[in-house]
Write a structure and sequence with these properties.
The complex is a heterodimer of chains A (590) and B (98).
Chain A lengths: L5 H19 L2 H4 L3 H6 L7 H11 L4 H12 L3 H4 L5 H5 L3 H8 L4 H8 L2 H38 L3 H49 L3 H10 L21 H14 L8 H11 L3 H32 L6 H4 L2 H9 L5 H36 L5 H26 L3 H25 L5 H24 L8 H22 L5 H11 L6 H9 L6 H38 L5 E6 L6 E6 L5
Antiparallel strand pairs in A: 1-2
Chain B lengths: L9 H5 L3 H25 L3 H47 L6
Helix pairs in contact in B: 2-3
The chains are: A mainly alpha (590), B mainly alpha (98).
């Protein structure tokens, strides 16, 4: 049990007031328009969404599963946390394309990329699914807070879930995304500072970095310090194929959209950035901060490992980071540590509540129920949806209960395995149509349960490793959507040309490009190249002139040095005083 | 480094070129090197410092390559954004039939 002093209570209360205040203060901005309530007016500099990306990526459950992986596998566990790697390629590819589409949500993108009935079906499905999924994610993160509070204060599980999600709801509801993003900035700074502090304290408690290394060797676990430690090609816990999967899936996923659950959260931040460049930078720097955070976090977890090497219960060792803070911070700073945990918690919950509300208000209510809705009505529905998603999260949170990490792998990875490739194809291949994409989503929903739970239970399939499940799911779903794509017509060419000209996607878009050129909407490649050549020649000409002028200057310099240097008097009229002041400037004549 | 293009017209910048592909390759490499380089450096493992340095250099090179191109894309796109937004609103309100 953790005991608070007066100073600890001060930190916590002050932090809650600061968070609610920094959110609510933007109430007026949030209610200006639906673009303000959900996208902060689409005009943010890159560092604001970048900080928000980092803050939202750092949730209450994150230190839990991260601690679990590193405690079990050491530095190899960092590969598992590299799924933020999708941002590495996405920043320069799919983020750029999505930002140019201006779609507020991934559901909205469906009606821009595809045409006709499948596009509308996909938009409706994705919006409904996102509303429910955001309830689930808020519940999952919320119950992680319930677990932390139960361990620290002995509270019933639901206290931590209900109290802190309700506080978040206040500012997410009043000022929308403006409140979320501004609160995220101070939360991001608070949590990064605390993560560094906990690692410093933990390293000192374990005797310093070198002592940790020595103790790990003494415990006969040297492989924990080797991130490239492999147990074989396909066998063992750290096989080559597993490592390959951990690299290929996140990084190549960056070519597509929605290849990872975090995409839906980041898509909102991408559209809140003021320009294409700001959007790209926000995604890259947000993820870069996440990977730096992981490395710093690892110090605290490995320090915990050498101090407590014999824990076998995952529910215990996944609290490693929290325990290092609560057990080793001095009295008075423990409250600060808990305030940082609140920052971690609030940033994710508020973002999720606003995101779910956006899908509910913009994609379901505005697009399908009341297309003529005024801005005021959309914002009102957004606020109602914020509360609805919070209430739904209480249900899911209590359903998940104690073992938070158990749900992670299934929810975050296997449920998207079958749609991983279609999510890339929708960006890089013009012929991949709405029916193909829709069939992939439907097939994946059924097949993932079959492969992961049902068939192994009836011994039709053997117990498969995680990476085997992923690739089998991907292949099985492909057997459905490829035939569907080729048996149905391509999307409407008008729609394809429109999206191509606007977003300029990467990949196989030849026929669409030629059609756009035929319609005079795009300059032909040869014309662009010709123009580029002309510009280059012009620049070379200018460069040549500059060079000859320079050499001329050099020649003259020698003779100028020989001539008498004399001061040049310059007369300047001083503004406001009306008097003339003379200013002498030493000039060298050339 | 004349092989890397640093001045772009809006039309040229809209095309996917080798500069994009260089950024696409350098970006994951820098993420991997920074992650493991920093983690190992914090434990004072010599290989970590080398990896961290490689990661930072790869990142700097990537930004040096891609930044001018992104500037050109952004400037050109912002001039068209208002028009695209009004079209988006039409689709949202079912006013566009295409």
């Amino acid at each position: 049990m953790v005991h608070f002093t007066g100073l600890d209570y001060f930190w916590v209360i002050a932090y809650i007031v600061l968070t609610i205040g920094s959110g609510v203060i933007f109430y007026r901005l949030g209610k200006r328009s639906s673009a303000d309530f959900f996208l902060a007016g689409r005009g943010l500099p890159w560092w604001l969404p970048a900080t928000s990306n980092f803050a939202t990526h750092t949730a209450t459950d994150t230190p839990m599963w991260f601690s679990g992986w590193v405690y079990r596998s050491g530095m190899y566990g960092l590969w598992g946390s590299l799924f933020a790697g999708w941002c590495a390629i996405s920043a320069w590819v799919s983020t750029r394309i999505f930002r140019r589409s201006l779609a507020g949500t991934q559901a909205e993108w469906q009606t821009l990329r595809f045409s006709g009935l499948p596009a509308e079906l996909m938009r409706g499905w994705m919006a409904g699914w996102q509303v429910v999924l955001n309830m689930f994610v808020a519940g999952w993160v919320g119950i992680a807070m319930g677990n932390v509070c139960q361990w620290a204060f002995g509270w019933p599980l639901w206290y931590g879930l209900v109290i802190f999600s309700s506080i978040c709801c206040i500012y997410a509801m009043t000022s929308g995304f403006w409140g979320v993003i501004i609160a995220d900035v101070q939360q991001g700074i608070t949590m990064l500072l605390t993560i560094v502090l906990v690692s410093v304290w933990a390293a000192i408690a374990a005797g310093g970095p070198k002592a940790i290394v020595v103790k790990i060797h003494a415990l006969n676990r040297p492989e924990m310090l080797n991130p490239f430690h492999l147990t074989g090609f396909a066998s063992g816990d750290y096989s080559f194929l597993w490592l390959l999967t951990l690299i290929v899936v996140p990084f190549f996923g960056g070519f597509g959209m929605a290849t990872h659950f975090d995409w839906f959260v980041e898509a909102q931040r991408v559209q809140s950035a003021k320009s294409v460049k700001a959007a790209s930078y926000s995604i890259w720097w947000g993820a870069a901060t996440v990977i730096v955070r992981n490395a710093i976090w690892m110090v605290a977890v490995l320090a915990f490992f050498v101090l407590n090497p014999d824990i076998t219960d995952s529910n215990q060792y996944q609290l490693a980071w929290f325990r290092m803070g609560f057990e080793y911070f001095p009295s008075g700073l423990v409250g600060f540590f808990f305030a940082a945990i609140l920052a971690i918690h609030f940033s994710t919950i508020s973002g999720i509540l606003n995101l779910g509300a956006m899908y509910g208000a913009r994609d379901l209510y505005h697009h399908y129920i009341n297309p003529k809705a005024s801005e005021k009505q959309i914002i009102r529905v957004g606020r109602i949806m914020t509360v609805v998603i919070m209430l739904g999260s209480f249900f899911f949170g209590m359903m998940i209960g104690k073992d938070v990490s158990q749900w992670l792998f299934f929810a975050l990875w296997l449920m998207i395995a079958g749609t991983w490739l279609p999510n890339i194809l929708q960006v890089i291949w013009w012929r991949f149509n709405g029916w193909g994409y829709l069939s992939a989503w439907i097939a994946n929903l059924g097949i993932c349960w079959l492969v992961v739970w049902i068939l192994p239970a009836f011994h039709v399939l053997p117990e498969l490793k995680d990476f085997q499940q992923f690739w089998i799911l991907m292949g099985a779903v492909a057997l459905i959507y490829f035939p569907v794509t080729f048996l149905t017509k391509p999307d409407d060419m008008d729609r394809l040309v429109k999206i191509y000209v606007q977003t300029r996607p990467i990949g196989f878009w030849g026929p669409v490009r030629r059609e756009a050129e035929r319609r005079g909407l795009l300059a032909k490649m040869e014309e662009i190249e010709l123009k580029a050549e002309r510009v280059a020649t012009h620049q070379m000409g200018a460069e040549g002139k500059r060079k000859s002028a320079k050499s001329e200057k050099k020649k003259n310099k020698g003779s100028a040095a020989r001539t008498e240097k004399r001061p040049v008097k310059k007369t300047v009229k001083m503004k406001g005083t009306g008097r003339k002041a003379s200013k002498t400037a030493e000039r060298r004549r050339s | 480094m004349s092989w890397i293009k640093r001045t772009w017209t809006p039309h040229e910048a809209d095309e996917w070129t080798k500069e994009d592909w260089l950024a696409i390759v350098l970006s994951p490499l820098s993420f991997i090197f920074i992650t493991f380089g920093l983690a190992m450096s914090l434990f004072l493992l010599p290989a970590g410092f080398v990896m961290l340095a490689v990661g930072i250099i790869a990142s700097a090179l990537m930004f040096w390559i891609i930044d001018p191109k992104l500037n050109a894309i952004s400037e050109e796109y912002e001039t068209k954004q208002r028009e695209y937004l009004s079209e988006l609103e039409k689709i949202q309100r079912w006013e566009d039939k295409t």
